[in-house]
Amino acid sequence: MWDVIKKNKYSVGLLALAVIAVIVYSVFYMTDGVSLGGDNQQETVSVSSERVGEDIFRLIEQLERIDLNPAIFDRPEFATLSGFDYVIRPRSEGRSDPFAPIGGASGDRGLTRQTSE
């Protein structure tokens, strides 16, 4: 068997390349959609995207129907909850105009350009 493959390397390579091309084409370019008619224009609508849209609308409808019982806020467990707030420490600010030349802007706060004499 290996002798046949060795004698026909070119044909076997071409066959393997064709199989790979068919697999790549089927994965990337074939759709399981519905073709909507037109004279010269073909539009493909993916069935799975329609289902995803339906799921989103169904979820929104369920969320709109949620009723929160206000008695939950009177429970002692709710009163013991605390936040994870932290204080933001102030940081030093930079120059008011970072693109102005050093030593020439009004908001430089005393920075001057050093020159070598």
List the topology elements.
Elements: H1 2-7, H2 9-28, E1 33-36, E2 43-46, H3 47-64, H4 76-79
Antiparallel strand pairs: 1-2
Task: Provide a quick synopsis of the model.
This protein is mainly α and 117 residues long.
Name the strands of the widest sheet in spatial order.
1-2
Note poorly predicted spans.
Answer: 34-42
The class by helix and strand makeup works out as mainly alpha
Average pLDDT metric: 75
Bulk shape: flat
Order of helices and strands: HHEEHH
Task: Assign a percent range to the helix content.
Answer: 40-55%
What count of helical segments does DSSP give? 4
> What is the rounded Rg?
35 Å
| Count of individual beta strands | 2
- Compute the separation of the termini in Å: 87 Å
* Oligomeric form: single chain
What fraction of the residues are assigned to beta strands by DSSP?
5-15%
Characterize the largest beta sheet: strand count, sense, and whether it forms a barrel. 2 strands, antiparallel
